[in-house]
Inverse folding.
């Protein structure tokens, strides 16, 4: 897998086309058949690449994924195409024409930038990763806009580019790295590099402490279809600004610096803010938008008496509020014929699957139960998505 060259030959490309869509259960039979006419290492590499392409469809879409090349880490760590396209569009709107993409990985962001018409210098120190990025640029017809360089990013001169994009490695031998100074390269180096450019964007983990955000940076949290993907520190835009961006859209909620919402009794509606809103600490902005308050000072659920649809939170109409009690919940669900049960939790140690097993929902109806706290007390709220 460290040498893509055999897969880039006519024989390798033909094999990749032949093994496309091979199911795991069929791999042994397919490998046995193909090894009669092709070298065993090439067959193994083609099948391994086919597996990676299948995994990559979720991030890149079928059309691109089955033309691109991947490494195991590349599939895991690369930016989702929709997020990369949004960031490239924002850089384009900022007047950027060239970007130094440092720690480029397999080239996902470089591809999005090039498709936006931006010239890219893509740099990665790992030989196999850089080779994969180069193969991807060529496979998608973007080689004229993307120069891939195998180098230590800390030694690269970025002065010839309008913008810098840095995506430090946030995984080590023991899994995810949570300390920004343990990134590779460290966040402090990335921030210093960002300050040398007119515009810069640093991709970081969404769980980054807010106190780690530099005062001269804009902090943005991005979700895609409700799933929080990343945080980005922007330089050269709006220093001190905080925003939550929801894809598709994009829809951007810019923080107004509001104080924490007041705690109030449960109203008819419960609003569940998008994860990017929560990570950006903008729950107060959603509460103000729907004229609501918090159920509990430490829980990011907003409640209100009226339904005011907002793209930044999902609204539920609440029918019941009960102290936490599995037997009572089971009896209530049985009485209402609930067989499709969605369990959400915030501030509760109970696992949704564990609760679902205990209540054994049966019947034609559906309901949502929230396991949470109301003014500090463990509580169950039963309801359904609000009709808009």
């Amino acid at each position: 897998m460290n040498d893509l060259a055999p897969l880039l030959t006519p024989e390798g490309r033909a094999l990749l086309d032949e093994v496309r869509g091979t199911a795991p259960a069929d791999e042994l039979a397919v490998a046995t058949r193909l090894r009669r006419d092709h070298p065993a290492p090439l067959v193994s590499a083609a099948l391994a690449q086919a597996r990676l392409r299948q995994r990559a469809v979720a991030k890149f879409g079928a059309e691109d994924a089955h033309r691109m090349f991947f490494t195991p880490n590349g599939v895991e760590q690369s930016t989702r195409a929709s997020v990369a396209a949004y960031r490239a569009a924002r850089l384009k709107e900022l007047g950027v024409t060239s970007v130094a993409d440092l720690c480029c990985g397999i080239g996902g962001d470089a591809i999005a930038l090039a498709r936006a018409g931006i010239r890219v210098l893509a740099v990665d120190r790992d030989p196999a990763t850089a080779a994969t990025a180069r193969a991807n640029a060529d496979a998608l017809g973007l080689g004229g806009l993307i120069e891939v360089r195998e180098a230590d990013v800390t030694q690269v001169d970025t002065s010839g580019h309008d913008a810098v994009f840095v995506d430090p490695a946030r995984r080590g031998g023991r899994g995810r790295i949570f300390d920004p100074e343990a990134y590779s390269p460290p966040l402090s180096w990335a921030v210093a590099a960002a300050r040398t450019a007119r515009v810069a964007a640093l991709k970081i983990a969404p769980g980054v402490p807010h106190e780690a955000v530099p005062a001269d940076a804009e902090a943005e949290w991005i979700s895609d279809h409700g799933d929080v993907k990343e945080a980005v520190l922007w330089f050269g835009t709006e220093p001190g600004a905080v925003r939550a961006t929801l894809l598709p859209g994009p829809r951007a909620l810019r923080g107004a610096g509001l104080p924490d919402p007041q705690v109030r009794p449960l109203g008819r509606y419960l609003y569940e803010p998008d994860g990017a809103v929560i990570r950006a600490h903008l729950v107060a902005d959603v509460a103000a938008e729907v004229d609501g308050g918090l159920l509990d000072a430490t829980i990011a659920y907003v409640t209100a008496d009226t339904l005011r649809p907002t793209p930044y939170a999902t609204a539920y109409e609440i029918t019941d509020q009960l102290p936490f009690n599995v037997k009572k919940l089971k009896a209530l669900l049985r009485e209402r014929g609930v067989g499709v049960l969605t369990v959400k939790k915030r501030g509760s140690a109970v696992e949704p699957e564990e609760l679902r097993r205990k209540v054994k929902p049966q019947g034609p109806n559906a309901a949502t139960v929230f396991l949470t706290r109301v003014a500090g007390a463990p509580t169950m709220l039963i309801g359904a998505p609000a009709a808009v």
Remarks:
- The radius of gyration is 24 Å.
- The first helix runs from residue 5 to 8.
- The chain is about 30% helix and 25% strand.
- The longest strand covers residues 313-323.
